Amino acid sequence: MTSPLLPGFRLGDFQIDTPLVLAPMAGITDLPFRRICKRFGVGLVVTEMIASRAVDMGRERTLRMAELDDDEHPVAIQIAGSDPKFVTEAARWAAGRGADFIDINMGCPVKKICKQIAGSAMLKDEALVARVLEAVVASVDLPVTLKIRTGWDEKSKNVARIARIAEESGIQMLTVHGRTRAQMFNGHANWADIGAAKAAVSIPVIGNGDIVDAASAREMIRISGCDGVMVGRAVQGNPWVLGEIHAALTGATPPPPPTAAERWMIVSEHLDNLAAHHGVHCAAKLARKHVLWYSKGLRGSAEFRARFQQLTDWQAMLDCAAGYFLGLGEHVHLHELQAA
Question: pTM (2 decimals)?
Answer without folding.
Answer: 0.92
